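Supplementary Note 3. Input sequence used for the single-chain structure prediction.
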Amino acid sequence: MSETQQHLANSKVEATRLNEKMMVSGVLGGLMASGVHVQLTRHNMDINYMHER
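The predicted structure, written as C-alpha cells, is reproduced below.
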C-alpha cells in the first residue's frame, strides 16, 4: 500500500469516528433535552396539584 492510500484510509477512519461522536452527542443531547422537558412537565403538574388542593 502506498503512502497516499494509507493516508486516505486513515482519513476515512477519522471521518467515521467523527461521525460516530457527532451521532452519540446528538443522541445524548436529545435525551438530556427530553429529560429536562419531563422534569419541567412534572414540576408544572405538581404546581397545578398544589393549587387544586
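Residues 1-53 form one domain. Helices lie at 3-52.
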